Amino acid sequence: MLEVVILGTGNVASHLFKAFSEKENIDVIQVYNHNKESLKSFSNLTNTTTNIQQLKKADFYFIAIKDDVIAEIAQQLNKYKGIILHTSGAVGINRLKHTANYGIFYPLQSFSRNTTIDFTEIPICIEANSAENLEKIKTLALTISKDVREVNSEQRKALHVAAVFINNFSNHLYAIGAEICNEHAVDFSILKPLISETASKIQTLSPYEAQTGPALRNDHKTIETHLAILSNKHKNLYREITQSIQDLHGKEL
Amino acid sequence: MLEVVILGTGNVASHLFKAFSEKENIDVIQVYNHNKESLKSFSNLTNTTTNIQQLKKADFYFIAIKDDVIAEIAQQLNKYKGIILHTSGAVGINRLKHTANYGIFYPLQSFSRNTTIDFTEIPICIEANSAENLEKIKTLALTISKDVREVNSEQRKALHVAAVFINNFSNHLYAIGAEICNEHAVDFSILKPLISETASKIQTLSPYEAQTGPALRNDHKTIETHLAILSNKHKNLYREITQSIQDLHGKEL
Question: Which residue of A has its CA nearest to B67?
Fold first, then answer.
């Protein structure tokens, strides 16, 4: 049995708690948070504590708390022999260096509170301070995901930025699409199949191959028509992304 | 039996040909293109012609040819009594006004040559020069799609721009993600589950609700870390989209 303590009660903490709890060979023996209120939803399921000095002895301690305080929390865990892990894309492994055994367990996915997620398909990026610890982290990660990859801190930070473009920024483009629909009294739901198809194409084509549209075709007339329709707040972004597509594909506007 | 003539041999023409050919009550009796070579793949399946003066009598003529020449092609069809349709998102219905019966049949999807598409789920935006023609177009559209909506030319042009943000521009963000991966020797495929999840969330949440990330949280530290990692060619777009997210959500950077 692998014993796990989770520090934090946010989205990543909650989803990890759920994924681990469903596995027979893993026991989440404790959840810590400084705020008692946020522990409520866990208190029927496992031991909880607001006192970081009273953590149980475990094989793994997950720091699933916001980036700013990871180093500070880690320092308070230096007496434990278990592996101290953080789950952040943006924080280097060296922030855990005051502990004896440490590593990274970064699930590359966007977690929302109320969505159910199948962890099996989520890539988990792992890193460790020793080959031995890397093996242990890998064994744990493979219990919940079939896609576990060794990724160093520099690569992981790059992935984190790439994820911002792919997830946060794409979502914002959907939001602009919704704004344009609202401005013209069109139901946004009509665009949902296109959103699905756009994402689905990338499973088989590279994004470079999958590119279509007036920017790629260098279709000035359509671009001008679009700029004329767009409200001022969207014109600039339309121009910038059009230019960026043309730069990538070697076109000149 | 509804008889259809298709003008054009590109992506939209090919996908419409396939969708209509599969229906028992629809007969694609002819495909026209000015270029003989491009008719080859249709010549075993139906009658083909390069002479626009020799089109057969049909219930519907689909002009699935590039936007610039729609009006010119339509003018050459003014002797036909069948309904003249174009399939473009960006061209107004008035470009068909020299014909007797006309309308729009705009499938809101991105078509690639070599992908199979289930038309059932593709929204079709229709418009016509009369209530009677609208009904006929609707009947035809409903044979291949379960989502047929009346959309006027102004709304359709707005949808076309929204589709550029949602499809072309999102795909370009995937391409930037792939570039960042290449620069740091990470396999882009690790981001594919995140791409799927980002699109999939929008089926149940509004894009406004689904927004996450450092721009929304106004997390300066992460934003600065990201800008430091990004190559110069991506910094500007990162800043612009971050700003646009903050404008939409009423944050100040």
Answer: A222
